[in-house]
Amino acid sequence: MRVLAAMSGGVDSAVAAARAVDAGHEVVGVHMALNRNPGTLRTGSRGCCTIEDSLDARRAADLLGIPFYVWDLSDDFVEDVVEDFVAEYAAGRTPNPCVRCNERIKFAALLDKGIALGFDAVATGHYARVLTGSDGTAELHRAADAAKDQSYVLAVLDADQVAHAMFPLGDAPTKAQVRAEAERRGLPVAHKPDSHDICFIPDGDTRGFLADKLGEVPGEVVDEDGQVLGTHSGTYGFTVGQRKGLGISRPAPDGRPRYVLSIEPVRRTVTVGPAERLAVAALRAVDPVWNCPAPQGPVEVHVQVRAHGDPVPAVAELRGPELHVQLRTPLTGVAPGQTVAVYSGTRVLGSATIAGTTSAAGAGTSAGTSAGTSVETS
């Protein structure tokens, strides 16, 4: 096959490209330039898409003896990832930019361009597996290494995208073995630190980044009865489940910590309350994407709402354009804007964007019931 290897300049994508070459594919490396003003050097494990990263990717491609190109996708990245990120926070939601990047850049813009140029697949350094099902179709599964599994951020891929995806590291037992393989191959990135946090906010100051983009939008921090406890400079500085940095002037009457329960950007209010009010019994999600036939009727599944979160048993059901999920085990700190990924065993069935939740408070001990009050339905 003709394979387009996405090479970020890190160890995972370099080894993935090497394995694709070893498998006998005709491989071409491509580095996606996503930053309009790339820095010269990374700061440890922070940031990506720097000049250093592009040079590291080129050196790896040269060592593998494959053609290498840099494609400027910065306009797509700004529009589809950065601007989307800002708009979601402004609307009181909590997005995952890595999910959006995989959906709209790596497996939309990049894959579409690759297919148009005659490539059969895109190979990346993600830790996930594409297996052939009993009906001959491609299935997306969790990686062999549960600690590195990245299937959650890939759950937004549709069936056609999964069919054209290649994840050579999916069967790798551990990341340490991938680094050891890179060293044996003589790849100069063998010990390069992994990148963390949000790539376009290399200093890690998400609140400062959003403040620069959105300006001050002052409002009030209130309790569940509407009593004003403090003020803030923008609801975008908060996420559901947040405990620190709430700007509260006095403790709760019982002395227990408060947490963000909901965010109302129109009224400019942030509602806080006790930890038990964070427990969620049900989810309502929109814009579902399936890489298999959409489920008919209620189905027993496992769902995951964070990249490194634990999957929990649930019942999922499509009701018109929405996905409704009853959780067998309540989850905490679930926010609108997050992605809910749906699994059957190790297989990813699809995903949707959380639009609202139902609190487990008052639902008794029967996990997964629909009892409770709405915490956030924006």
List the helices and strands and how they pair.
Elements: E1 2-6, H1 11-22, E2 26-33, H2 51-64, E3 68-72, H3 74-90, H4 97-116, E4 121-123, E5 128-132, E6 138-142, H5 151-154, H6 159-163, E7 165-166, H7 175-185, H8 206-214, E8 219-222, E9 228-232, E10 259-264, E11 269-273, E12 280-290, E13 299-304, E14 312-319, E15 322-331, E16 339-344, E17 347-359, E18 374-376
Parallel strand pairs: 1-2, 1-4, 2-3, 4-7, 8-11
Antiparallel strand pairs: 5-6, 6-17, 8-9, 10-11, 12-15, 12-17, 13-14, 13-16, 14-15, 16-17, 17-18
Helix pairs in contact: 1-2, 1-7, 3-4
Write down the overall geometry.
Answer: globular
Order of helices and strands: EHEHEHHEEEHHEHHEEEEEEEEEEE
Stretches with pLDDT under 50, minimum 5 residues: 40-47, 362-378
Largest sheet: 6 strands, antiparallel, barrel
The largest beta-sheet arranges its strands as: 12-15-14-13-16-17
Provide the residue-averaged pLDDT: 89
Termini separation? 46 Å
SS-based class:
alpha+beta
Beta-strand content: 25-35%
Report the top-level CATH class of the largest domain. Alpha Beta
CATH level-4 homologous superfamily of the largest domain:
HUPs
* CATH A-level architecture of the largest domain: 3-Layer(aba) Sandwich
